[in-house]
Amino acid sequence: MLEYSLQxxxxxxxxxxxxxxxxDDKTLFPWLFHSLVIEHHRSxxxxxxxxxxxxxxxxxxxxxxxxxxxxWFAEFATESDFEKLKxxxxxxxxxxxxxxxxxxxxxxIKNAKERYWPxxxxxxxxxxxxxxxxxxETEIVSxxxxxxxxxxxxxxxxxxxxxxxxxxxxxGDCDAQKACLIIIEKYKDTFSMA
Length: 194
Fold this sequence. Notes:
Structural class: mainly alpha
Number of helices: 11
Order of helices and strands: HHHHHHHHHHH
Strand content: under 5%
Radius of gyration: 17 Å
Helix content: over 70%
Number of strands: 0
């Protein structure tokens, strides 16, 4: 799964090279959030490759959160929301972002949030999901099992592909859109592995 994930990341980044966007808030900020998803995805891969699973798992929530914010700011943000974001004063609850997206798109975002959010928080904020994987029977060491590592990579692969699709759509670049379709076809099984 690690090599698969790394190749996906390389393909995404190659396709995005040189892609530009408008500088208006409604396009730029969602693009920035989705670019974070793509970078966090690559970081998770690099950390896993170096057996730094605790650090990798702490980024999973960041992947999900940046994806949701990218969608929400593209669809619902007002000028006031963008101004607050620029001042680091945007404080709308994450649940409200998810709820608005679900009501409009009926895309299962709310279900994903309810299913994963407690563990994502625990992994990011040094909770039990994180601490319990730092100990085995005799010593304190990283103790992430293969199943969890595979799930973490699949989760980040899924959201990297979704964010990649959003960025390419925003770009309006026909060549990038064609490349996106090829990459989605190549990695479509990543969605069935989630």
